[in-house]
Amino acid sequence: MSHKLKVGELREEYLIEEDIWRVFTVVLSNKSAKSATYKYALIKAMIENLYQVNHHHELNYDQLAYSFAKIYWNLIIHHGLVKQNSSDRRARVVTEMLDFQHKHGIPSDFSFDKIKASLQLKLVSKIKSVMKINVFGALYGDTNALFYEFDHRTEYFRFHSTVHEFMLKYQRLIVNLTNYHMAKMIEELNEYPSTSYLLDKVESIAKRSSLKPYEEVLLNYFEATCFYCGKSLTRGNRASHVDHFIPWSFVQSDQIWNLVMACGTCNIQKKDKLPKRDYLDDIIARNNQLQEVIQEKDRDSSLRHYHDQKIVLLYDYSIKNGFDDIWVPN
């Protein structure tokens, strides 16, 4: 009954990759104690926050609950992938999502990022309560207390340092495996055309549909020029884009320290590629400026746990995960 735990202490054992893969093999199958989409959503939320940990590999519950709520909203409401069997008891997270949607009259075609910020916070708070009852302890038990520890009172979550490094190293593979098994489970619970159909949906549930808020921030604090080629951009120029310096398909999250303004030509040409390593110095310099101007106004900004080594690490791990097609603007 590990899902009822309010505190889970980490087994600080020496782990090798074989040990971690063995646990993941069980977790990503129907052999685990709680065979539910919860575990996949939490793993995806953990991956989304791998680069948001502090120096002690810690996260707070709000960080994980935000990602978890976004994933589940897009899964349940936006894509309508809800368990259909009326004879089965509906999962609490599904009930909370549907009740919240009905109460606030939110259209089903709204992805999570289209919901008003004030309502997002209310929903995240509700989902965090569900996670305390049904999620943190369940995956903790499935992973034999080897992956992380948690405390509901302080809302504290800490990765085993070796597991954190492992997830960075094999991030792309873990994401693909998690998406596949999540799609397979949804297929078993619903009547859908194929696993490939569901995979397209599952792969997109962590995505934002708009990066407009970040565009406003970047244009407010920096000159309106393309980060890559230096072309002048204007606020009315529809050809300007917000680009993930490290491709979204690897990092699986939207962090302002990984976002830059790009002209339409560079954005289209770059696609899902890494820019030339020389640009690392440029984005590090940009982020140092960004830290100064943003943190003066917002101490709780997404840059709070940023340091230069994070984006260097992200760049290096993305290459190790197969993003080795390096792009240079024409």
From TrEMBL:
Source organism of this protein record: Alkalibacillus flavidus
HNH nuclease domain span: 213-268
InterPro entries cross-referenced by the UniProt entry: HNH_nuc
Name this polypeptide is given: HNH nuclease domain-containing protein
Segments passing through the bilayer: none
One Pfam match: HNH_4
